[in-house]
Amino acid sequence: MTNPRVATPDRAARPAPAAPRSLALPRFERHALANGLRIEHAERCGLPEVSLHLVLECGAGAEPPRLGGLGELTARLLTAGTPGRDAMEMARWLDRLGVGYRATAGYAVGAVSMHFLSEVFDEALEFLAATILDPGFPEHEVERIRRERIDEIERQADDPATVAGLATIAELYGDGLYGRPVAGAGATVSEIGPEAVRDFHDTRYRPRGALLIACGDLDRERLLSAVEARFGAWSGEAAPVSPPETPEPRAKGLILIDRPGSAQSEIRVATVGVPHNTADHHAIIVANAILGGLFNSRINLNLREDKGWTYGARSSFRFRRGAGPFIARTAVETARTGPAFEEVLREIEAMRTAPVTADEMTLARNALTLSLPLQFETAAQICGKVSRQRVFGLPDDYWETYRSRIEAVTPEAVQEVCRTYLDPDRLTLLAVGDAATAEPTLDGLGPVDVRSAS
Hints:
Number of strands: 14
Number of domains: 2
Order of helices and strands: EEEHEEHEEHHHHHEHEEHHEEHHHHHEHE
Oligomer: single chain
Helix content: 25-40%
């Protein structure tokens, strides 16, 4: 008997893609303790892991401007000792449990994230309670962490990309909240002492206003019983951090920060953007993907692939409770500073004056939606996404409807948001580089304000 002949596949032809995976999210149940601590929980069996995400209204917007960086410094000090354990004992406790612990502060909120095996849940929650309810903030640890932070700031002053980023937000927002680095500047961090840290913690680390998100191999009864036992006696309220007023975006000419001897110029084209929860949010996301949010975006294909002037060019709208910035950024050989500005501005103007192509729309939609399920694979990822929804007041179905809303964006909507938010008369241009080489390339871009980097 002979075997039937099997057709040989055409290996020169690309296989047809599979149907897009649907986004299946676990269902979160909402609870609250009597003290006001809100809890959201989703049981997710299959892997013996748990992620916790505690969100607190303790961002930079809650700190005095003269003590900028206080929220970040407080977050870094949470594991630096309790009345019963010093910093080394806390570190050994964490290592023994095998727990991932991270505390951060943003402009509006701070967050403590933990990830661990479900079998150590009770002791992991005990560790979380110790750091949130009873941190000691010993003077020598405050001094050590403060010194580390000042050293970081001093090192960042030697990084032209950081200098460009900080100078850009200062130009856009002035003395406002978003014009300051979220982790503070050298002059403000130097003023922070133990009492300031303790006062900030006493005021902002409170249950009413806080949210605990839990996802993983953990049932509701076990979670609620343990949280009540550890956090039930916690008391107080922290009011939400209000967004700052939005400054009127306006062009400020071209600012050139002199960094003698730099082989490259860091380039920024920026303006005041929009809050996260804005009506044309999804159109803005698609527009930015086409302009500078993807590798195949217009400014990257122009400056990197066509011109060969840079390793990469990107843009982003930074969504916050208030109007965060839009920033297009790249780094080019210093002699290409002016031409690079011209190309970025030309690409922005093209987005404003003509609809994008069907191929660009397809690429952007696919890039933004087909990878979405990969962003919800782990308990930690899910907690982070839910946290984002709650912090910015997004609808409960934000992620479930994300794909359909992105796919509903039209080329005309993309053009309209570019017209609305990327007005050339409101763009700030800034470069950090060797002024002697860069300035002669800037003819035609308007008056140049040359400043010292120091």
